[in-house]
TrEMBL record, chain A:
InterPro entries: CheC, CheC-like_sf, CheX-like_dom, CheZ_family_phosphatases. Keywords: Chemotaxis, Hydrolase. The lineage of its organism: Archaea, Methanobacteriati, Methanobacteriota, Stenosarchaea group, Halobacteria. GO terms for molecular function: hydrolase activity. Residues 60-147 form the Chemotaxis phosphatase CheX-like domain. This is Chemotaxis protein CheC. CDD domains: CheC_ClassIII. Residues 300-336 form the CheC-like protein domain. Pfam families: CheC, CheX. GO terms for biological process: chemotaxis.
UniProtKB/TrEMBL annotation, chain B:
The keyword Membrane does not apply. Pfam families: Response_reg. Gene3D superfamilies: 3.40.50.2300. Residues 4-118 form the Response regulatory domain. Keywords: Phosphoprotein. This is Chemotaxis protein CheY. The modification 4-aspartylphosphate is found at residue 53. The keyword Phosphoprotein applies.
Automatic annotation (TrEMBL), chain C:
InterPro entries: CheD-like_sf, Chemorcpt_Glu_NH3ase_CheD, Cytotoxic_necrot_fac-like_cat. Coiled coil: none annotated. It catalyses: L-glutaminyl-[protein] + H2O = L-glutamyl-[protein] + NH4(+). The lineage of its organism: Archaea, Methanobacteriati, Methanobacteriota, Stenosarchaea group, Halobacteria. Probably deamidates glutamine residues to glutamate on methyl-accepting chemotaxis receptors (MCPs), playing an important role in chemotaxis. It holds the Pfam family CheD. Keywords: Chemotaxis, Hydrolase. GO terms for biological process: chemotaxis. This is Probable chemoreceptor glutamine deamidase CheD. It is an enzyme of class 3 (hydrolase).
Length: 408, 119, 166
């Protein structure tokens, strides 16, 4: 199947507008000013979904969709956010000793879910020119992936799923809410399918393969950090999502990072940012540089971060180059120390001159003991990515390693 | 007399690391930060071995290697880089590189690769 | 729509402006935006009407078929000005303050950086509208966060640990 990027963009916009309606409803009902942070469409395997949701306790509402748009939705709050909302919405309702909400509270959450999801699907129904039916809300308090509708993951067993995700955040409070929508794969694929003569189409099977290659690239990059620091690492999340170009900067958190930015040129070409929060950068430098350093990192510390960026970049892009039997150059790493959004903004700006959406590959490298974490953002140029996918031979997708022995 | 080595890498940190690994058994004649400096310092010192990074500003390591081996066919150059792309390795071979070490490396890998080249 | 709970009618004092987004206030709200790198922040204030607006634009010039006018410095400024007029502002009384337009990296400043071009287009657009720029904190290589006080028109710029009031 080939996917039409324009229609993927249209659906992303519908989800964004839907989430804005939902956030407006939340604001209206609670008086808590909220906004939509990011809306993305992610292509996920079951493993991805588990990585993303793993380990977090959610309170939420599940609602099934039918009619013009079939699939499953969930509105999810973390426990504390739900408590804040219940507190405003149903004063007097409370959680018991185990943190479980009483019936009044649950009913409040159900009602808010009903209204928010109603707002979310309205735009879809208008666009599709068909009514979208909603099942009654089903209240859930669950850990991790269980907050997702039953059956959603069973389908992911055999194929990837598209997951629409919108994050909503309160302006003045620590409240986060998420809307997930998992359209039924077959029906949605039909909605996305491009006609054969479409120039702008992306081959879906190859995109999935590329996603897998990228995941392995992130593993390689993580392995390289381990070699340099002697600290065991793992890739926590690695996903390929489709976002409006102006949302790219917001995928980094609103905090200060130290890291490096590289431009890579070839097929594919694009940009890569490797970002550490400040304590993580310090930990990395202390583990790598065998000397006392000035504050904050000293010249040698900054050089170590640059070199780490260099080595991680290679880990990340070399697999692409070897599978595609091409070479991908990258600029020397540039050290950055600033807010995440500000760091990503010129990248979005440069790509935004020729594309409205971006395929964003973000990965998080973590350590078992929580010594540090590292966020990788790879944002290929859309045209270059398409060229790369066109020339990708699926049967070569495991040829990530160069055959150095035969050359030297 | 210990063999003479020229270290070429744009990263302070990496030059430092290589120096620590090599200074016991080699004479480090100089350090270059880019491909242009590498060619100049090679002519000046005529070292027995060059440890050459690939991705550097101004001029990359493959171009510099090509120029060095072009004027001195006996030059010993070991690429010492994070790049693990087969096409790049082929280009390095074409440019006249004698060995290839992929970062991140451990001391024994480096010494072993040098043994293979400077016998 | 039915409303629920307490606090529904409380005045909201802070409004967040995203990227490729703008907001207008006629009740003195504080308009904020964060993580401006190469993007441009434009604070507009009509003191006599008590109307303020803040835009956060990403790209210099809009194409003819722009889907989101707030994304571009030229159409974004036009949009916030017309929204302010709907709230009672008069173009002749509007004053502008600019912030942002950094070149965060070297490869970004090759050719002319997006940041520089955003600032240039911002200036031209305001000139076309006849809106004077009374203060600017633009360029450099650091990100900025903005707080625009809708009651006073003061623009607070935070950047690299520094705070400046324009």
């Amino acid at each position: 199947m080939r996917v039409d990027i324009q229609s993927l963009g249209t659906y992303n916009r519908l989800a964004q507008e839907g989430a804005e309606h939902a956030a407006a409803s939340l604001t209206q009902m609670t008086g808590i000013e909220t906004y939509v942070d990011v809306t993305n469409v992610t292509l996920m395997s079951k493993q991805d979904v588990e990585d993303v949701f793993g380990g977090t306790e959610f309170v939420g509402v599940q609602i099934g969709l039918g009619g013009g748009l079939s699939g499953e939705t969930a509105l999810a709050f973390d426990q504390e956010s739900a408590a804040s909302i219940v507190d405003v919405l149903v004063p007097g309702a409370s959680a018991d000793d185990d943190g479980e909400f009483d019936e009044m509270a649950q009913s409040g959450i159900n009602e808010i879910g009903n209204i928010m999801m109603g707002g979310f699907v309205d735009g879809w129904a208008d666009y599709l020119g068909a009514s979208v039916d909603m099942t009654p809300p089903n209240y859930v308090e669950r850990a991790g992936t269980d907050v997702l509708p039953d059956g959603a993951l069973d389908r992911a067993e055999e194929e990837h799923v598209f997951v629409f995700e919108s994050q909503m955040t309160a302006v003045d409070q620590e409240i986060d809410a998420y809307i997930y929508m998992l359209p039924e794969y077959g029906a949605f694929a039909d909605m996305l399918a491009a006609s054969d003569d479409h120039d702008d189409a992306i081959p879906m099977d190859k995109l999935t393969v590329f996603d897998e290659m990228t995941r392995q690239g992130a593993q390689q990059a993580a392995g390289n950090v381990s070699s340099m620091t002697g600290i065991e690492t793992d890739v926590d999340v690695s996903r390929l999502s489709f976002v409006p170009i102006e949302d790219v900067p917001n995928t980094a958190r609103d905090e200060v990072y130290i890291g490096t930015v590289m431009e890579f040129k070839g097929t594919p070409g694009g940009y890569l940012a490797i970002l550490f929060d400040e304590p993580s950068a310090r930990t990395i430098v202390d583990a790598t540089v065998p000397m006392e350093l000035d504050e904050p990192l000293g010249e040698m510390g900054e050089s170590a971060i640059e070199e780490l960026g260099n080595i991680m970049t290679s880990g990340f892009i070399d697999g692409w180059a070897n599978v595609l039997q091409t070479s991908i150059d990258h600029t020397p790493p540039e050290l950055v120390h600033d807010m995440g959004t500000a760091i990503l903004s010129p990248i979005a700006g440069r790509l935004g001159q020729s594309q409205e959406y971006a395929f964003l590959m973000d990965s998080t490298v973590v350590t078992p003991e929580g010594e540090f974490n590292c966020e990788l953002y790879a944002i290929p140029d859309e045209r270059k990515l398409k060229e790369a996918l066109d020339s990708l031979l699926v049967e070569r997708s495991d040829q990530l390693e160069a055959d150095q022995e035969s050359l030297f | 007399m210990p063999p003479k080595v020229l270290i070429v890498d744009d990263s302070d940190f990496m030059r430092n690391l290589l120096r620590e690994i090599l200074e016991e058994n080699f004479e480090i004649v100089d350090e270059a930060e880019n491909g242009v400096e590498a060619v100049e310092l090679y002519r000046e010192h005529d070292p027995d071995l060059v440890m050459m990074d690939i991705v550097m500003p101004i001029r990359d390591g493959i171009e510099a290697t090509s120029e060095i081996t072009g004027s001195d066919p006996d030059a010993n150059v070991i690429m010492c880089t994070s790049v693990g792309q087969e096409e790049k390795m082929k280009n390095a071979v074409k440019a006249g590189a004698d060995g290839y070490i992929t970062k991140p490396f451990q001391k024994p890998n480096v010494l072993e690769a040098i043994d293979d080249v400077v016998a | 729509m039915e409303t629920y709970g307490r606090g529904t009618n409380s005045t909201r004092t802070r409004r967040r402006v995203g990227i490729a987004d703008f907001a207008v206030t006629d009740d003195g709200a504080v308009l904020t935006t964060s993580g401006l790198g190469s993007c441009l922040g434009v604070g507009l204030f009509d003191e006599s009407a008590g109307v303020a607006g803040l835009a956060h634009t990403m790209l210099p010039t809009a194409p003819d078929d722009a889907d989101n006018v707030a994304k571009f410095s030229d159409t974004g400024i036009d949009a916030v000005v017309s929204a302010m007029r709907q709230e009672g502002a008069a173009v002749d009384n509007i004053r502008a303050k600019l912030a942002g337009g950094s070149a965060m990296f070297e490869f970004d400043s090759q050719e002319e950086s997006i940041g520089k071009r955003n600032v240039a287009v911002g200036r031209t657009t305001l000139e076309r509208l006849g809106i004077p720029i009374v203060a600017a904190d633009v360029g450099g290589d650091s990100g900025r966060s903005l707080r625009f006080q809708g009651d006073t028109g003061i623009l607070v710029v935070k950047s690299a640990g520094d705070e400046r009031r324009l």
